Protein 1
Amino acid sequence: MGPQPRAFPVFQKLPELTQDALSYMPEKAPIRPRSAVWWTAAVAFAWLTTVAGAQKGVNAGPADPRIVSALGQVSAARLQADVEKLVSFGTRSTLSAQDQAEISAGHGIGAAREWIKSEFESYSRECGGCLEVKIDSFTEAVGERVPQPTKITNVYAILRGTDPQGAKRIVLVTGHYDSRNGHNLDSVGAAPGANDDASGTAVSLECARVLSRLKFPATIVFLAVAGEEQGLYGSAHFAQMAKSEGWDLEAVLNNDIVGGDRNPQQDTKVVRVFSEGVPVAATDAELRRIRNLGGESDSPSRQLARYVAEVGPTYDVGLQPMLIFRLDRYLRGGDHYSFNQQGLAAVRFSEFHEDYDHQHQDVRTENGVEYGDLPKFVNFDYMASVARLNAATLASLASAPAPPGKVRLLTKELQNDSTLTWEASPAAAGYEVLWRATTSPEWEHLQAAGNVTRITVPLSKDNAIFAVRSVDKGGHRSMAVVPIPEP
Ligand SMILES: [Zn+2]
């Protein structure tokens, strides 16, 4: 009766977490005969799968051999060298010295910044100058964790899209290259920050290295930000710049603590992907619509998370994305939030099991316990899998046509059919309608719509959540767009 939902990464780790949860559950769930309501719901649910031509299960389409070959270039040894180099600067505290003497001595955040820039430039030389390497520098005023006006510099490289129209679309990967130890204002003590967040910075660099060998119709930006540990200052400045310059920034992948710390509870086959539900930037009208129509799990960031979950298996990257439907972990934040605040789709990647002895700690041994964020705790093969997942997502999105524009669900009349309309995407060869039960975390069904901009599906819009995505001739899929109701 009804479809068997396929195993979804979001749930796969739950059994390990239920030991405590189980104690809150009744010993035996009462068994009741199934009611008329249950049967009606079951029949209705079965109907969701029986639309002619509809396909059960939604994936990212066929693997693109060019992308497969780029993923094959991702190197754990390169990632290790990058992390060790970043650690070699002693501290990358945003408050550490950045004068020429310290840069020349290879110490502090200024030296780290210059090295990141020179890495991007070396990748660019290898691809005939294909990367535009830039900095975004500003002075942060005095604040709670900024004792004096401090220069903060983001470093980034742009792989410009080859399609004049498509190049306006941008996808971005980021990590923060600043670090801290046990004292947020310590500007001189060792702060290796191997996992937090040399790992994320190295993922951004490695994506730049392997993807700069390819060309994409859309633009990819590889970013390393500073000021994260003082209050997300670098990413906030960058996201505001993107917004004020009118960038069509479609997706942001933030990697923070993706080193796969070598603790016994670690699961090297899982990376968590955090995404906000109700957008922090939603207007009052949008919030009303979300409340009225059950849109709490359909933010652009959540569509991006679902996209990551579909791309992972297509490219066999070495681990599974585990979607976490919340902005971030308890008591913690990250740079994706700066982009969310500007109304942009952004998700956070983090390892499955963090070890707090190896984050934000002074390097020391106490009672036989080693504290500190050191490279020896990082698993570079794991980082390579995370880098492949990021690169596969960036490359898929940058190869895909733009998502359909102005997707609408017609709601003028009471009808048991659902009619969707949209504006054509220039590079699309066709479109797909996706839907899922209102209680389901992931897209469950798909119907090819052909090269049209309107379709009527014999399903009640009251019982399902719909979306539309663009497909090009090569089978690259855009992110899904959930319609706005049009009365
Ligand atoms: Zn961090």
Protein 2
Amino acid sequence: MRDLFDKIYKDKGPLGKWAEQAEGYFVFPKLEGPISNRMKFRGKKVITWSINDYLGLANHPEVRKVDAEAAAEYGSAYPMGARMMSGHTQLHEKLQDELASFVHKQSAYLLNFGYQGMVSTIDALVSKQDVIVYDVDAHACIIDGVRLHLGQRFTYKHNDLESIEKNLQRATKIAEQTGGGILLISEGVFGMRGEQGRLKEIVELKQKYNFRLFVDDAHGFGTLGKTGAGAGEEQGVQDDIDVYFATFAKSLASTGAFIAADKEIIDYLKYNLRSQMFAKSLQMQLVVGALKRLEMLRTMPELKDKLWENVNALQNGLKENGFDIGTTQSCVTPVYLKGSIPEAMALVKDLRENHGVFCSIVVYPVIPKGLILLRMIPTASHTLQDIEETLVAFSAIRERLENGTYKRLSASVSAAMASKE
Ligand SMILES: Cc1ncc(COP(=O)(O)O)c(C=O)c1O
């Protein structure tokens, strides 16, 4: 028999094995100063393109004031206990009602965290006889929720209608045998590449197949749709989403999340969501803070307008300068370049140190080998000056990538990586 920790001593995991080269810089970087379009990284000001503060609320003076007042009034303990037992309050209910009305649903229920809430909601919605059909590029919280499922599950090719239909057919056959139902899960916006889930077409498939649609709209809430109700509203199918999910971690710039659906479904989930039944209620300061943020989403459409002005300026500027931004249909702005992981590291270092531009890199295995994805999140707090400077920087790094500068600079990293492969 082996010591449980043996494997940990030998293998740090697919990301952990690069800790020595990457930690503190490419992963676990420390961005300092107030959350904004320009923050400090290693003592130097950088334009920040990696923070999901879409509407610029994180450091908005009105939000900061309400957060501070709520913290002073309630502290961080209140209320104590799970919602069902002793952690329920009028303000939790008020926030739920306002969230439900904002996303045009009958009812809503608060979750402490988006990730855990998604896992738990999937768990509560399905029993062993049911079948789950979901996008192969789903967020980790969907994958982990599906992992809890004791029945059958099928992935479909990313946003591929033919594959969705084929898997609905397979799921239908099984559900007919087991006597179960089908849950189809999509994201409203896929957070890496920015494509919207094909909700309109998926909803059309309801004419042919019997399934319920669950949408994780983390990136669509507050950014898409006429009233900010998300990807479903944008595509004109909000009413056909059976269960809607969004987190507070992006447009609302906070912590917490919610699900919304018909009253009867939320009433069921209230009594069956293990992540909420067996965990302390969402803190009051977060509830009060979310009420303020939601009011601002409702009453300050200029925040979303400014966001989209910046999204369009950045995305058009990149395209005009010949950059490949893939097939994004949202604020998420990916820039695809060709290169190895060591080249990507040298490139990002150059961007940060010499151009003062901070964005995240995504490489294999999240995207195919040989591609580098620079993932940018424009927000309402960016300026056209930020965008102009970034476009100049991007043209410079592309030239250096193409003339082999990063290949030369990264030779030692390449050698170190080869020894770890
Ligand atoms: C698509 C998606 N779902 C769920 C989550 C998890 O939300 P939270 O940060 O509230 O746990 C995220 C990330 O924040 C996300 O991008």
